[in-house]
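We treat protein structure as text, and this decision shapes the records that our systems exchange. The tokens are whole numbers drawn from a learned vocabulary of local backbone shapes. One such record is reproduced below, unchanged from the form in which we store it:
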Amino acid sequence: MAQAAKKKPGAATTSLIVSARTLAQSHFRTLRLGTPFQPRIDSLARTNDWYNWAGYRAPHSLWDEELEYFAIRSQAALFDISPMTKYRIAGPDAEAFLNRVTLRDVTKLKSGRVHYTAWCDDDGFVLDDGTLFRLSPTRFRLCSQERHLPWLLDSATGFDMTVEEETEAVAGLALQGPTSFAVLCDAGFEGVERLRVFDLAEFPHDHGTIAISRTGFTGDLGYELFVQSGQALSLWDRLMTAGELRGIRAIGYTALNRARLEAGLIVANSDFVTSEHAIRADRLRMPDEIGLGFMIDMEKGHFNGRRAILEARAKRKLRHVLVGLEIEGNIPAEHAIVYYRKNQEVGLVSAAMWSPMAKRNIAIASLARPFGDTVVDDLWVEIYAMRELQYQKLMKRAKVVQRPFIKLDRRTATPPADF
């Protein structure tokens, strides 16, 4: 006590400042949530290049983003998809409920199958897109980019069913690339050769079961595997051991993003803004405006946004179109402005790259109609390229092309080849 009384004036304040500084440093060093595979991913991380995926610490790259991309196209790439939002929807009315809130006809989705779908608000604007897995006649798993639990629960009023988020309980891996099938065979998953594209089946693993679907986000031969979190590390080890001679490598998002662009696939809140995130009214998009019009099944019963979508089609109120572009040169045009006749701004590029597979400079862009729809000539992109420490403005010609930019036969071959 006596010693405490002899402290110099201001000592307590200094102590508080030091404590606050220590606390702040501790806060910034605090890592985000880790997935069940985090111990294995951390041990492989060389670049220390992380980003926030729905509150989880996820890698942009692990060792080399260029070589990680080529692992997808020439070997087998393992990507942790555990942060992807996952909902278990089950009960007697689960099918009717999902048919009510999503665009596609769920009655046509058989057990053991998956389909890509989207869902809209009452005004017909896209809330999100994702994959719907039919696990049994009355059980489904809905996977999405964003979280929608309050909306799903509100929409479930009057239906005899339950909605439960299982993002933390279920771990997921994407195994993609030409040797992915061979890796699964070498790992002992008997019967995986019977899986067609968008098929789903359960296999024994670690005194339990694992769900394997022939799906992915790369446009390549590939699978997605879902397992209870407690069995995650044993699954990782099983795949890495089996795939050692097949060139299996763990990858980050940058490589996956390049592969999905070549496949012409879109990302919510990257290629379009979901209606819950849009602040400005002109950022909202209907399914027809982002290339998802093929999902809409007008022959089924009422679904969210049906009336608004029908009206927009009938009265030609669709204002935008999402297109694939091929751009001259080899400099990626990411986030470049698109012009008509070099002087009229008509849209914006959301994703772009020089494609090693297509040997083309490709991009996805959102354009204001009629550009990209009925007017496809004399389009240009404005690229700012760094040349000797100085940005140089380049105007490059662009033409509208079909997506996907590449189409690989091995993606749909059944059974796949043993590369």
Q: What stands out?
A: The two ends are 76 Å apart (CA to CA). Confidence is low (pLDDT under 50) at residues 1-18. Residues 150 and 190 are 40 Å apart (CA to CA). DSSP finds ten helices and 19 strands in the chain.
